[in-house]
Amino acid sequence: MTKPMRNGADYMASIKNDGREIHIDGEIVRDVTTHPAFRGAVKSIAHLWDVAADPANRDLMTFTSPTSGGPVLRCYHIPKTREDLASRRGMIERWAEETFGLMGRTPDHVASFFAGFTAKKSVFAELAGPSFADATERFYEKARDEHLYVSYAIVPPQIDRSKPAHKQSDPTLHAGVVKERDDGIVLKGAQQLATGAVLSDYIYVSCIHPLQPGDEAYAFGVVIPANAPGLKIYTRRSYAAGATSAFDYPLATRFDETDALIVLDNVFVPWEQVFFYRNLALCRDQWWRTPSHSLGNHQAQIRWATKLRFLMGLTKRLCEITGSDPMPPVQIALGEMAALSTIVEGMVLAQEAMATADEDVIWPAKKALYAVMALQSEINPRLLNAARELAGGSMIMLPSSVKDFEDAGSAADFERYIASPGFKSRDRVAVLKMAWDLIGSEFAGRHEQYEKFYGGASFLIKTNMYRNYDFARATGLVDAALNLPES
Ligand SMILES: Cc1cc2nc3c(=O)[nH]c(=O)nc-3n(C[C@H](O)[C@H](O)[C@H](O)COP(=O)(O)OP(=O)(O)OC[C@H]3O[C@@H](n4cnc5c(N)ncnc54)[C@H](O)[C@@H]3O)c2cc1C
To answer: Is the pTM of this model over 0.85?
Structure first.
């Protein structure tokens, strides 16, 4: 049945007081739409739904559902051609620009994984059987046609990384199946690091961490509504709630999507929400034999490239403000930053240009994806460091808060000493506070960690790169060189 495109008001109404159990600062929050820790992020997500629902953006943001006939988010589209990948990018980039690339787990991230799972439903059918493959496809269609926002928690809690799940001090530390019933399964344990879970409708819970024989109970893939009985969402500290004002922390107050540990306290999951269980092969192959990881991280790279463009813009503006912009060494430094961020942009396009299609779906090129992901934990801090070098003390030597401008004497001093040619004091301070929130604040520190780890630790991504690089072609060149005729 056609459901009109969800807008921001629909989104906020649907998550308001819906029974989700969110723990923060010793309290349980029932209404995320009004709580100071979450309301800024909720508003930003609501804005994304408004952009998607705007009839003027219909072609950019949506496609026609083959089931309902209504417009649905383009990130749910199963791409078949390079043009489809480019259309996906158009939608994802538009959303990323609305958050300046500062919200990683917007609804287009996990939607891309589900498009990948469903494109290769055959892998689910082969390894788990047709009923599980059908459940996966039915949930994909429901999420697509009902405009759902799914987040995910697919890494076990860190507790003791030297031991597999079944050898932890208690077998119910990592989320696992503790009971099978006629109507579904019961899960107990925790999983991390569910970014955006507090904002989403459903959480996909599974495991991307390598599992081994004996870990069968932890090898499952299920979706759980964010308000499921027994599901507790423990969020990290809120940077939005700690911020003094939107002027002082313009990014943390709006885009703190939050990260969370989810605890499953005997959560019941009906069969229609179970895509496989006790299945080590599918728990692994869901990521690699389907294009889920490629499509999900194609989204992540489009977002990161957008964020880097924002960083470039802020750094350039900062140099204009401090008057360093015309200096040749500063232009060289900005040029180096621009080169790095253009490489990231180029690698998004390379994923599309080198994409390979089979009879079901086109796969963004893994070689291009993992090349840029593997170096993200080096490129991102390098860019941030370059911006810090150019900033000097400009982001620090600022009025303590917007309140300082209220005193006429202080405001006059700021106009004299914290202003620059062409920039009134308040405007200058606004730019530099934004730069600090992107580069130096607690929100910024979390972002640096996010870009390092959102796709897994870099040693794992480098292993993916190893698996996807054409070493045969490279060593073929060596053989050819060794076999050159003598003269
Ligand atoms: C801000 C943020 C948001 C995130 N959002 C999500 C999300 O929404 N959903 C989700 O599921 N995940 C998310 N993640 C990813 C996530 O849960 C993990 O942080 C990530 O997969 C890395 O695992 P870990 O933190 O357990 O680190 P570990 O696996 O413990 O690794 C930490 C470090 O230990 C070393 N190390 C560990 N094991 C080895 C080894 N075998 N060989 C060599 N070195 C090793 C490496 O230096 C490695 O970098 C997010 C992460 C961050 C930081």
So the answer is: yes
